[in-house]
Amino acid sequence: MKGQNKLFIAIIIALVIGVGIGGVVHTQAPESAESFSKNIKLLGTVFIRLVQMIIAPLVFTTLVVGIAKMSDIKMIGRVGTKAMLWFISASLISLFIGLILVNWLEPGHVTKLPIQDAASAEELLKTSKGFSMEDFVKHIIPKSIFEAFATNEVLQIVVFSIMFGIALANLGEEYSQPVIKLFDIIAHGILKMVGYIMWFAPLGVLGAIAAVVATNGFEIFKVYAIYLRDFFFALGILWLVLLLVGYLILGNRLFELLRRIKEPLLIAFSTTSSEAVFPKLVEELERFGCNNRVVSFILPLGYSFNLDGSMMYMTFASIFIAQIYGIEMTVGQQITMLLVLMLTSKGIAGVPRASLVIIVATCSMFGIPPEGIALILPIDHFCDMGRSMTNVLGNALATSAVSKWEGQLENHGGNM
């Protein structure tokens, strides 16, 4: 725990230093802000790439081992069903909270945002035009497992891993045990690498924060104060709901879980990447006492199907853009939009800025000018901080809850 606390403190210090350095550059040397941001952002890029390097092999080995060790197909089905029920329920609750609060707070009616150049949204507009059911299916089913590994398509790796794990589970111990043992060793070797990589997190956090503040300065917080205030208020409500459900299931152990995942939460918040903390989250959930087979099975699924913060943001941002343009939507239209978002958002976790792509596609579908996405692009980084941290919390709670329901949540930490 001493090492964990040192890392946590180092990240906090890096966060403060990053804001300070970025602020100084923005105010004292604005002409060099762009080049400074480009260079210091490399620290964050290096950290993210180090983590991305181990995501695919870690998901593959842990998921295959987790399923193969279950050996009981009924157990796989039971755990999978419980997980999907949690994911669907949490997604609907997140969408509803976003929908209710954006209608109540009406940030689009009271906020006078500077109209952004729609050119900044062109890339997203182009990306969203290709969205279709065919693309959705192609994104889920891998054409080649090697291509999925090369592009870090987590959902495709999950699909292959589940099928391969079930096949191993039904192969018989004589054939399956050597393979399972090999993958188990590889998984723990990769988890050992996590410890080394995480010590680069403070530099990654410093680089990411300094770059944003140097480019945008502190003014961006003032300009978008109402939108950010309302969005983070909505996130706070979502956190209260998630933590209340977590307390009902885990009892006082919820506080132990929060202590365990404080570093992943902070890293996700600082780097705007829930993917960056996946390996660390696996490690901490096992130490918390979650069964490693359940963790290996549920967490990769959660990263594709259980993104609570992103789900809430989709309804919030979509209705906000409609409010900005003075478009009134009936309750029926908004409920339809919610159900559309529920379906279209699944399985696109690997797409960069996935939430924005789905928002653009949804706006087009409901007659809302998709160019409106340009209005929120300048502060999407800050919203993404909250989204990413909430996604990590939601997946940690889902994994812990299913472990508890399965009667496989140990009181004094799991085996590593």
From TrEMBL:
Subcellular localization, per the record? Cell membrane
Q: Which residues form a coiled coil?
A: none
Give the Pfam families listed for this entry. SDF
Q: Where are the transmembrane segments?
A: 7-26, 46-71, 83-105, 154-172, 193-214, 226-250, 319-344, 356-379
- Swiss-Prot/TrEMBL keywords: Cell membrane, Membrane, Transmembrane, Transmembrane helix, Transport
- Topology relative to the membrane: Multi-pass membrane protein
Q: Which InterPro entries match?
A: Na-dicarboxylate_symporter, Na:dicarbo_symporter_sf
Residues in the signal sequence: none
Protein name, please? Cation:dicarboxylase symporter family transporter
